[in-house]
Amino acid sequence: MAIDHRPLQLVGEVSARDGGPDLVRAVDGELELRFTLSIPRWRNARLDGRDYHRVVLRSPGTGDAAAYAAVLRPGQRLHVHGVWRTRVGLAGTVDELVVTRLWAPLPIPAGTPVRQPREGDLL
């Protein structure tokens, strides 16, 4: 059995390559959000291009894929953990990372003070 040397964690930006995020129904009937993650490749402290990986967010029974489809945009930074799968599609076989954990940066900069509601504030 061959050892798989592909990374199980990817940190990069959602790419507009291949048309951006695409919500589809898989063969098993579950919703999947398929997109490409663009990862900078560094060599000798210089940007030496980008690697592109296909990523799949599945949501069996939770609706997460549909929710992320509404907010995921090209350029958004993500940190994903997952497992690799090979899917046979119309264009041949495609290697994809199926997400098991996903992190996105907070919508406000880190360290920004957040005002707590006080008595009498209208919520």
Automatic annotation (TrEMBL):
It comes from the Bacteria. This is Uncharacterized protein. It comes from Streptomyces yunnanensis.
